[in-house]
Amino acid sequence: MSSLTGVLLTALESGLIFSILAIGVVITFKVLAVSDLSVEGTFPLGAFLVGRFLTLGLNPFLSLGISLVGGALAGLATYVFHKKFKIEAILAGILTMTILYSVNLRLTGKSNIPLFNYPSIFVYFQNKLLILLVIVLLVKLLLDWFFNTEQGYLLVITGDNEDLVKSLGKNPDTYLMVGIMLSNALVALSGAIQAQYQGFIDITMGQSMIVTALASIVIGDAIFRESRKLKLSTRAIIGSISYRIIIGLAIELGLNPNDLKAVTAVIVLLFIGYNNIQSKQKEGKILRDLSIE
């Protein structure tokens, strides 16, 4: 296998893992329009839950399920801080993230644990890429199905117009809670898979995860900005893979890994700027067309 092929394969596998993270952040950032920073705590939470239960001899797939539940409970904590304690969403997420730092250390008692000697989901399959594709497609299809249900529609409407949800006799806070819990459950699942993929867990795993997710989202939006029918989950997946390929090729061409976070931030800024410029140009064209008519 050539060096370039190896880079692309690794980028594709990593892109699939982090696409689950991106899909989770899409729910809060795009659907609910909530700034939830607790994902930087729930990503390593998923990893540390997997690490804890793998060392106890639990099946790696069951460990993923526990990580999902753990992430959902962390999301519930953020919701409680936000709605019940009347704390701004961004601060509520920071509080959850801070608490989870200690929780993660309590789970294992150490900040870094190797998992190479324990079975992972990849032990049962020769092809890592195939199992990752299956998991991501399963997550995408289940989420797309949910958003086509009545509850899913109401969750989307909650992000657009809470008054409309109230007029239907429903409580928008319920759907806000479900959305934040679902988002953090998927983020924790991504962290759990990443832990098994890389073979170790580390307390710093969650750093800059929100930026990584946003980079995937804005890249996906930039690529498919004219394709309104394309689902948000699909955009997040393709954006995540594209982002990982960009980063992988940059490192292959000589980028210092120490500059990776700065480069990620620059990528986000460039794509957001591109999206904003394109939106203004489109608005200008519409106004010119209307004036001609």
Task: Describe the structure in your own words.
With 293 residues, the protein is mainly alpha-helical. Helix content is 76%, strand content 2%. The chain is built from eleven helices and two strands; from the N terminus they run ααααβααααβααα. The protein has a two-stranded antiparallel sheet. The chain is globular and about 55 Å long.
Helix content: over 70%
Count of structural domains:
1
Strand order of the largest sheet: 1-2
Output the radius of gyration. Answer: 20 Å
Query: Structural class, please?
Result: mainly alpha
Shape by Cα distribution:
globular
Poorly predicted regions are: none
What is the element layout, followed by pairings?
Layout: H1 3-31, H2 39-55, H3 60-84, H4 89-108, E1 112-114, H5 128-147, H6 150-160, H7 162-167, H8 172-198, E2 200-202, H9 209-223, H10 232-252, H11 260-292
Helix pairs in contact: 1-5, 1-8, 1-9, 1-10, 2-3, 2-4, 2-8, 3-4, 3-8, 6-8, 9-10, 9-11
